[in-house]
Amino acid sequence: MKNLPIGVQSFLDLRTNPNNYLYVDKTEYIYNLITSGKFYFLSRPRRFGKSLLISTMDELFSGNKKIFEGLFIYDKWNWEEANPVIRIDFGGGAYRSSELLNNTLLRNLNINAEKFGINLENTDPTNQFSELMRKTHQKTGRTVVLLIDEYDKPILDVIEDNELAQSNKKTLHDFYQVIKANDDHLKFVFLTGISKFAGLSVFSALNNLNDISLDKRYASICGYTQEELESIFAEHIERTAQELNYTRQELLDGIKKHYDGYAWNGKVSVYNPYSTLLFFDKQEFANYWFGTGTPTFLIEMIKKDGIDGIKDAYQTRPLSGTAFKSYDPSRFNDSRLPLLFQTGYLTIKSAVLNTDDPKYVLGMPNYEVRKSFSEEILSYFVEKPKDKIQGIADDICDGIKSCDEGLIERALLSLFAHIPYPLRIKKEAYYHSIFIVLMKLMNFDIDAEQMTNLGRIDAVLSLGQKAIITEVKHSIKKPAATLLKEAFKQIKDKKYYEKYLGKEIILLGIVFDGKNVKCKIKAIKS
Length: 526
What we know:
By secondary structure, this protein is an alpha/beta fold. The protein is built from 22 helices and 15 strands. Helix 10 packs across helix 11. The N and C termini lie far apart (53 Å).
């Protein structure tokens, strides 16, 4: 049984290490890219295999034939024509000042210059970069392959410091701008990152840069498809199923629920590679990606956004394709949806592509993301430890299933009693949003603000054949009993339940009256 390549980002190490690492062959995608174009950009979340993809291209263009034996590209590549590779990796740099960014650029350029025995005469990064591409071509007699990994990290790492973010953005703008001017010296250019920044020269100056992030042909270039999981990981699946005392299908269902669901075309989904590898290693369902794949600035942005930030994360709605083409997360007024998508918290659930402006419906990809994200947000808004929050959610879930109003009220009181006064917003939308986040921690499928022909339902919770029609009210003027009557009257008058006839229907009214919480729950005949 082959070993799991956890943390291995070097294709050379992966293929030559005596540990005999497992590899999911992605060279067919690389072959199709190289044989059909020259300038490419790929956006994927962190910890999704972008660096390994870059490393694979590096070894391929360098002509390291032996390590590709047995892979798709092996008998299709011209191994006699190696090209010099300039590889710039922003993954390990520090960017908390303009000087640190400048030093990282110079270090990357000098490493590449030393590799080819080139003396760089210029002292500033931009001119050095141009000089490096030109001299490498002249010295080797072959056009250069340019691979840039995490091109946007110097901006994203300091995004909460707008002045520094804009300074780093300008430095990178000047740096990337020289790529187009050196077109004659370049054979192939490939950049990876998380976000596609508006106003950055790599996209404005390189107007022929092909963004394949949402291209259906490359939807599975990173991550594992269902077929790849079941074939390449077959022995690990068998071993883990035995260890956990699951049937093979039970285990596959569990892995799919926790780690699958990422899609860039609304059709083909892939598993998170980082979480999948760690699951097979630890043989335990846990949230592995969140702690290492989460840019801290994103959580901070959503916290600052308050209710609007929560709604962006949880309310599935169509997003125009133009939102992905030009986006600047440093502009606070911009929607967070493109960034939530690019960082891996939302994914494309469905897409309408046969129009001039494609539309994408976004949603959370899987249980791992939903649970981790919800715990993080609730922990902030209610100042309660994450391990306590899940227990509260479980109590509410049990109360809904058993129609136990007292259990639901006690659980909600224990949650909302810890909301700090400065965060407490006297608006119904605030309590509604917190309730929606709480529901995401349960096994309910939840649709927030569902439209019917007569009105808008606050939330519908689904569990098997149960449909829980929920109405949330808040007031500091009206008594709780009056608000509960209004909630149920609204559900009945608007006939919210009609959309779910055929299921077991439960009506749930929740009232927040100052620090008091009251609820009423009732099953009705469908």
